């Protein structure tokens, strides 16, 4: 009987695992469907920083474009070591372990931001004008990624992120050199881009795990008005539409099966003059950052979907708080819209994986920003080698709170422990290890997300930018994380697993530079006690508050710490029986 149950479990897991990619995707009315005609909600992740480095991802905004980052590294260690650095970068940043992990976490698709110069030479470097030299590197990398996606029954969406010449005035996203002709100023650049898409379509035309061709990332150019540097006010978008139609025609000469994904001007969102669709297997992409998660914010895109009977895809979003993620993903999925988040990893904590900053990295940053002396080649090489090792998933910090917010919290308001929190005779719990869950379920904070593209709304979410990505403000020092910026009415919930029923003394490590802080404790609906938080003489002068007579039952207890009056900091709490 046990053997039968085991076999049944294996079959069930296999069915669940293989329920990902089901043949070629296609546009069917307002939906994306698989080859069985079933609706598919794409849940994807973009590999930003892989083929294309953007300065902010690695704290090198002073260099910003990838060609400048490369030049900065070459200045330190020379051209040969720089070439080795980039070969290792491309080998280490995204590997099979990354794809396997994404599939396990719940992603069913990957968006690959491609740099054209891994597939073909820039126009100016072609030995024969008008000809295209094809490079193995980009195609081989794409083949490997596709193989790993196949093994996990995931879709791979090809996204031309850095186009020949660059597609707009945002220089880092296209690794654009401002002194060279843009994509729109050079017919040779356009023809190279068209030829590249034809080459990709020819190579992958029979691959059902290719989810679609995202033919141009975030065009941002004022064609009619050069002062419209973002392209958000463009009325006709004639050059953009013309090029996308030419690319589509080139793809269709060799590939009739795959979805063609288009993006409007103004970073994917300005579709003035672009529609109606010119292909019967087309999807409209839009990008969404830093605004409210209400249907009003995406109403114009849903109107385009209804008017022209084409599916929508949120092709890029993210870089905010967990609360924002849960709200945004829930909203678009309720409206039959798939999504792709950005990025998988960088130096920062609001993505699933965080790349650790290598030792000595600040010396490189100081030199590049002209604030410090030039490190020796040997010294710089040590830092660069550690950076390359830190790219690997096994050396990343995995932010399971981010993953939980993107999947489990979208579907339930239930909370779960962040850590085991097993209470014995003497147990200390970090204040930052409150439960996993939504705002108002696992915690309450007055500021839970950044709305940096919403005029007049000045919020940041986690103002400490440390440890976790919820709205709770967490900072970190040499002794670890602690809760900061505590305001009136905020609270944190901790699921405790108590070994033995008893009465405990609760010792809370707090600090404050105000005199009227106050906290209280509840276990479920039962009030356990309250205490004033004194002025400790500074936010880094930690003292211990004692609450005696705290009754805990054996088993699960849900303890909440309330800030009845804020203004204090909270590091940990110790349970003493």
TrEMBL record:
PROSITE patterns found in the cross-reference section: CBM6
Output one GO MF annotation: carbohydrate binding
Q: Which Gene3D superfamilies match?
A: Galactose-binding domain-like, Glycosidases
Pfam families the UniProt entry points to = CBM_6 (PF03422), Cellulase (PF00150)
The CBM6 domain sits at 442-576
The yes or no answer to whether the keyword Ligase is present is no
* Alphabetical UniProt keywords: Carbohydrate metabolism, Cellulose degradation, Glycosidase, Hydrolase, Polysaccharide degradation, Signal
The record, for InterPro entries, names: CBM6, Cellulose-bd_IV, Galactose-bd-like_sf, GH, Glyco_hydro_5, Glycosyl_hydrolase_5
Against SMART domains, the record matches this protein to: CBD_IV (SM00606)
Q: Which residues form the signal peptide?
A: 1-21
The protein here is known as Cellulase family glycosylhydrolase
